[in-house]
UniProtKB/TrEMBL annotation:
Reactions the enzyme catalyzes: Couples ATP hydrolysis with the unwinding of duplex DNA by translocating in the 3'-5' direction; ATP + H2O = ADP + phosphate + H(+)
Chain segments carrying region Disordered: 642-671
Classification via InterPro entries: DExx_box_DNA_helicase_dom_sf (IPR013986), DNA_helicase_UvrD-like_C (IPR014017), DNA_helicase_UvrD/REP (IPR000212), Helicase_Rep (IPR005752), P-loop_NTPase (IPR027417), UvrD-like_ATP-bd (IPR014016)
Protein's name in the database: ATP-dependent DNA helicase Rep
Gene that encodes the chain: rep
Keywords annotated in UniProt: ATP-binding, DNA replication, DNA-binding, Helicase, Hydrolase, Isomerase, Nucleotide-binding
Pfam families recorded: UvrD-helicase, UvrD_C
CDD domains: DEXQc_UvrD, SF1_C_UvrD
Length: 671
DNA sequence: CGCAAATCCTTTTTT
DNA sequence: AGGATTTGCG
């Protein structure tokens, strides 16, 4: 397939900074991959001079794959395709000396951050979970805005003063633990490049051309990082769509697109408006919906794929029935139109909405895949093993220490831990160091002390072995899991043997990932530290996604759906309070919710069905939600509302029997 | 110190 | 309604 004129312009223009305003489905990934190929083939760039940055691991992986296909694996050697956070991690790792960091640092996820904040504030304030969440997000926002604790302290008012003090202490403790949080992965490199001209030049030479995908998602610190990396020469292409900016709560703002024009007056802007994904009717609805938002750049999607069928709105009696009807519709269509399960996506606002759909899919024996929902890494067994690995890499990681010091049971209880904690506090060292202080034996009971000793010895012994290259380190981890009798512990602590087996399977999966990363395959082998940090960034999750993309119905949040496309899309829970989410209604941030709806609509290639429930249980009580305002903003000629009242129940019955028959058929086929 | 019951709190989106 | 955390007992 040929590039259209706009696309070609975006690919071949390399004279200066370029902004590609790429509407949904306008082939932006193709433009990026073609551009990289163009740079390598026709311009004076080697693959290793080029970096492409995305926001999700999944996007990075997909892009890498597509470039490999276009350019060939060999020609791609040294090409950087990564998320912002991975790039940041890379820079930090190579500049630890300048940053004054010890090697072997840990990455804190926000649960770790919350645990640290809790420890910091517990004595003086009675903190609840929502306070901690607020604190984490405040600190995160300050970091994203590149404001140091001092700067915040100087200007904070009211409640913020307290948070600012906490911020300052939080930073100090992170440093003491030799730990970084996710935001540091952007902030540190940015500050580093800003303040060290020599380092900056080194990286500007290293990355001679920079491409940024999903540019509308950049926050202040990420944008500054981009600016510092491209420098005066400003050789870069950013691709974005202000209508798909759905991460303002993370500091990303559509206005960043406009900012670019101010900072680079010579900026060239190319608009991609031809859509290669959806039927015209779907685009019409999307365009009209998003017209309700103010715009920096005008943009109107069109396609030549035909007008298409009307969009539909389906009501369920309650959320259960909503799910049943969606599943019934899928079963019916698959039977009548010979569609594949994999052609369907069910998109929702919040992860909790997935439950009912999962249940209904299981009942009908329909294969499905849920993406996101932090499932794997939030499993207790994974967090346990990760904590062991983190402690191996960085013994000063108190969060990791606390998680596993008595897991499996070693007879080190709260009393002993309190003593160790006091000692650590008093000596201003980490808990693990405190365990090695002479005189600890006088504070603990004999058995507890003995247990602590052997724990310390275990970690040190394993860490030493894990530091050795290749096979040795893999064995070290295998032996560790054996030694602590984790499998036995799982069987002891799980409600059923089946559950324990399941959990052990997860552990083995994690183990497999780590071993794969430690061994050298095509790329160079990672150190354990690198592997652990990569896992903290959830880098393997996407890899797992790749493995089973069979014929399965896709379930995901609207956020997670960005960048994807499906022939048939259900947008479920189209209700006030849910799709404009209640909190966004309260904050008056309807525009972002509208963009979220826009993203959902533009995922659909052929058919789009909205569903909602007349009744929904929420916090134990039943509410009767209004249909989402966005449904009324659509051109009503193109939307077919399911008739209400009597006709509904008739149709419902028909659908139900169809579904039952289909389910029966399905069962017979299976067994 | 470890396990079971009782309470209470939840639901926005993610690197 | 369900899951997580905290309390109370053996």
């Amino acid at each position: 397939m040929q590039l259209n004129p706009r696309q070609r312009e975006a690919v071949t223009y390399i004279g200066g900074p370029l902004l590609v305003l790429a509407g949904a489905g306008s082939g932006k990934t193709r433009v990026i991959t073609e551009k990289i190929a163009h740079l390598v083939r026709h311009c004076d760039y080697r693959a290793k001079d080029i970096a492409a940055v995305t926001f999700t691991n999944k996007a990075a992986r997909e892009m890498k794959e597509r470039i490999h296909k276009t350019l060939g694996r060999q020609a791609c050697r040294g090409l950087r395709v990564s998320t912002f956070h991975t790039l940041g991690l890379d820079i930090i790792r190579r500049e630890t000396a300048t940053l004054g960091m010890k090697p072997g640092f840990s990455l804190f996820d926000d649960q770790d951050s919350m645990a640290l904040l809790k420890a910091l504030t517990d004595d003086e304030l009675d903190v609840d979970k929502s306070w901690l969440k607020l604190a984490v997000s405040k600190i995160s926002n300050w970091k994203n805005d590149m404001r140091s604790p001092d700067a915040v302290l100087a200007s904070a008012e009211g409640d913020d003063q307290l948070f600012a003090v906490v911020y300052e202490q939080y930073q100090r403790h992170l440093k003491a633990y030799n730990a970084l949080d996710f935001d540091d992965l952007i902030l540190l490199p940015t500050v580093l490049l800003r303040d060290h001209p020599a380092v900056r030049e080194r990286w500007q030479k290293r990355i001679r051309y920079l491409l940024v995908d999903e540019y509308q998602d950049t926050n202040t610190s990420q944008y500054q990082l981009v600016r510092l990396l491209v420098g005066e020469r400003a050789r870069f292409t950013v691709v974005g769509d202000d209508d798909q900016s759905i991460y303002s709560w993370r500091g990303a703002q559509p206005k960043n697109l406009a900012l670019l024009q101010d900072d680079f007056p010579q900026l060239r802007v190319v608009k991609l408006e031809q859509n290669y994904r959806s039927m015209e009717r779907i685009l019409k609805c999307a365009n009209i919906l998003i017209d309700n938002n103010p715009h920096v750049f005008e943009k109107r999607l069109f396609s030549d794929m035909g007008y298409g069928e009307p969009l539909r709105v389906i009501f369920g009696r309650n959320e259960e029935n909503e799910a049943e009807r969606v599943v019934a519709e899928i079963v019916r269509e698959r039977f009548l139109e010979k569609t594949r399960y994999g052609d369907y996506a069910i998109l929702y606002r919040g992860n909790h909405q997935a439950r009912g759909f999962e249940k209904s899919l299981i009942n009908n024996r329909i294969p499905y895949k849920m993406t996101g929902g932090q499932s794997f890494f939030s499993r207790a067994e994974i967090k346990d093993i990760m904590a062991y690995l983190r402690l191996l890499v960085n013994p000063d990681d108190d969060n990791a220490f606390l998680r596993i010091i008595n897991l499996p049971r070693r007879g080190i209880g709260p009393t002993s831990m309190e003593r160790i904690g006091e000692l650590a506090n008093q000596e201003r060292v980490s808990l693990f160091s405190a365990c090695q202080i002479h005189g600890l034996n006088t504070l603990l009971s004999a058995p507890a002390f003995h247990a602590v000793q052997s724990f310390v010895e275990l970690i040190q012994r394993t860490a030493r072995k894990a530091a050795e290259p290749g096979e040795q380190s893999v064995h070290a981890i295998r032996d560790l899991i054996k030694f602590i009798q984790y499998e036995e512990w799982l069987f002891e602590s799980s409600p059923s043997p089946a559950a324990a087996e399941m959990r052990m399977k997860n552990v083995n999966e994690l183990y497999r990932w780590v071993s794969d990363m430690l061994k050298d395959d095509d790329d160079e082998a990672l150190s354990l530290e690198q592997a652990v940090n990569k896992l903290m960034l959830r880098d393997m999750l996407s890899r797992q996604d790749e493995e089973d993309d069979g014929d399965q119905v896709q379930l995901m949040t609207l956020h997670a759906s960005k960048g994807l496309e499906f022939p048939y899309v259900f947008m479920v829970g189209m209700e006030e309070g849910l799709l404009p989410h209640q909190s966004s209604i309260d904050e008056g941030n309807i525009e972002e919710e509208r963009r979220l709806a826009y993203v959902g609509i533009t995922r659909a290639q052929q058919r789009l069905i909205f569903t909602l429930a007349r009744e929904r249980r929420q916090y134990g009580e039943t509410i009767r939600p209004e249909p989402s305002r966005f449904l009324f903003e659509l051109p009503q000629d193109d939307v077919k509302w399911e008739d209400s009242q009597t006709k509904v129940s008739h149709e419902e019955k028909q659908q139900r029997s169809a579904s039952n028959i289909a389910a029966l058929r399905n069962m017979l086929k299976k067994d």
